[in-house]
Design brief:
Layout lengths: L1 E8 L7 H12 L9 E6 L3 E7 L12 E2 L5 E9 L2 H7 L11 H12 L9 E9 L4 E6 L8 E5 L2 E5 L2 H5 L23 E2 L2 E2 L7 E2 L4 E5 L8 E2 L17 H18 L7 E4 L4 H13 L4 E6 L1 H5 L2 H12 L2 E6 L5 H5 L3 H11 L6 H16 L5 E3 L4 H5 L12 H20 L4 H4 L4 H7 L2 H29 L4 E3 L5 H8 L6 H5 L3 H7 L5 H4 L13 H23 L8 H11 L7 H21 L22 H5 L5 H9 L10 E4 L3 E6 L3 E6 L2 E7 L5 H11 L8 H8 L3 H13 L3 E4 L1 H7 L1
Parallel strand pairs: 15-16, 15-18, 16-17, 18-19
Antiparallel strand pairs: 1-3, 1-9, 2-3, 4-5, 5-6, 6-7, 7-13, 8-9, 8-12, 10-11, 13-14, 20-24, 21-22, 22-23
Helix pairs in contact: 2-3, 5-6, 5-17, 5-19, 10-23, 11-16, 13-16, 21-23, 22-23, 27-28
Length: 750
Amino acid sequence: MCGFAGFFGFESDYSESGQRHELLKAMSEPLSRRGPDDEQFFDNGIMSFVFRRLSIVDLESGQQPIWNENRSKFISINGEIYNHKELRAQLKEPHQFRTRSDSEVVLHLYEEMGPKCLDFLIGMFAIVIYDKDRNELFIARDRMGIKPLYYCQLKDGLLFGSELKALLAFPQCPREIEFRSFGLGNSNHGSICGGKVSTFVKGVNFLPGGSYALLKPGQSLQEKPYWNIEDHFAHEGQTSKPAKFYIEEFARLIEDSVDKRLMSDVPVGTFLSGGLDSALVTAIASHKNPDIHCFHALEKTTFMCGDTDAACQLAKKLKINFHPVLFDSRQMLGDMNFRLKDFEYFIWMMDSPRFDIEWFLKHELHRHAKTKIPNLKVMLLGQGADEFAGGYSHTNGFVKNWDEYAKGVLKREGQYQFFEDNGIPNSMRGLFSEDYFLNSGSQETHFQYLAKARVQVLQSFNLWHEDRTSSIQSVESRVPFLDHRLVEFLVSIPGTFHKDFFWDKNIIREVAQRWIPPELARRKKIGFFHTRNQDSIWELKRKILQRIFPEYREKYLWTGKSIFSLEHIEKFFDLATLEDQSSWFAIDALTTFISHDVFKEICLAPRSDFLSVLTPPSPHHEAKEGEPEKIWKIKDWDLQEAAWKKAPVRWKETDCPMFVDGLQVVFHLPKALHFIEGGQEKLVIDLPEDSEKFLELIRLFASENYKPLNFRQLSKKLKIPLSKVREAIRFLGKMELLTVYREEEVRKSA
């Protein structure tokens, strides 16, 4: 994995080589964590290019860009070509190789075949080839869009790069937000706009997966597809093979796919969630590499649903290194000292006005892995198994079999994609008759419409966050289930086998039993932390908002930088801090609003001060044998949680509040209060002008001689209206600054 950026053209605007070099340095800096091992520049006045390398294959001599023998062309690749050794042996012309790099093989293949060479590549890649003699630029992206490639066509030239933030470092890059792309909540559909994956910035585009472009100065870039999933769909009248053939072929392909993705001269790890997909990848990988390390996100939801136990048992059976990383919503934000700048960092990292708790946890899992094994640079994931093998067929409890799924969910989603493909406006969609859809296609056609849509959704959501959360920790994530050969094979299976193979991912479950225990292969699918009880996840989301909102209000709402109304945002915050399910919509909505403001600000004023944020070492620790049972008791969880929090869900006027143990207050009057816990600043509260009575309450709580008083006693002692006491206690409680004693406990202690 690497990163690159550059500009092609702009001779009249930037004629001085020193000026161009400074621009390249500015574009390179945001990519430094993506490629920390080497930085190389090229500039001839027309093509200006910088490459950041993460060394994985051919550590000594694989420096990029790589030139051909007569230095007429160079190539740089972000990604890996897994079949490069086979391709090297198949080259027709004699070539003089300077490296063992996969990139050099592709360069010579391009010399022989031109863009047609892309048909022979197995891997994930964003490719740049510059032909100096013809003054021609070639860019291409892998079929599934695993590796990102942005571009922006301007009047005087082309900008291109691995990440949006690199393009934004160029002065002429557009910065106008594409508001049509924004979805309320953090919906994956929010980044598909007009049938294309949106970058959220007008004028900046993604080169679609399975596409390439050739460009000369002064020309307009034309995207040209070299791969389309529709070319591999099963068709009516197709001759079927026996069921055993499809099982055996899938087994062969997934084993070969995992084997190829172990290609590395540095340590490789896996994420082992405890689910079917990551278990299969880990098991196959461990047979090839018994020293592999696997990492598991141990959170209340993953523990309670049995994922942790399943992951632990498989690791023991395989005799591999198992690292269960503890994410406790009650304390992890404090351990991280999470503030507004950390939230802004996530938006910057993602190149997107979206914040998702899954991305947050995966980021921290990568950070821990990098802390544990500093030279680990490759992580295998189970991502992409669901999309083309029926993984979402059995996640809805109301659907009991394939026939119900095909007639209901599959048909509805297929119809939606039909509307999208044919540009049918929303105003007309409800007018189409049911009879029309009964004749518009078989269930096979609906399955195909859905498969086509999922290629885009992967690029707009799943693969987007997997790339960013790993690359920011200088780790390359690899996705064996999205080997194009596997995807092509699955969508080519005739419809007569869909019921047997794609209900509840049966084709994967059948094959998995060759590598993992049958009980794990048949274990029910559970999405990452998507269990019945998600209270700990919503509590984590709520705490993030509570920690960042005071700073956000001061920086964005009070200064006019926000695009939203102060009054409305504060109402959403009040709703988001309610400790029940009624707050869930407000939590997601407010998170989205803040994300939009931060993204807009980052686009307007590119920053490099995030490069040192949330780097290793990780503050999270690995759980020891038996520790989760001590931390998360299955019985009486709510009572246990209340005891840990030392605070009731609802405040009563007979409760006696006081500051949590070890909390210190530093008075920076007249403007702010700083709360210190464990030697670190936990919270800053900005004081309004009429804060005298509130300060009296704080001083009382901070006093060494303070003995707990109930609400009415506090009101009487400080001569504050009871309503103001309630308001202050509620606020301080939300900020996790208070613990509580029941009145009877106070009497006993007295």
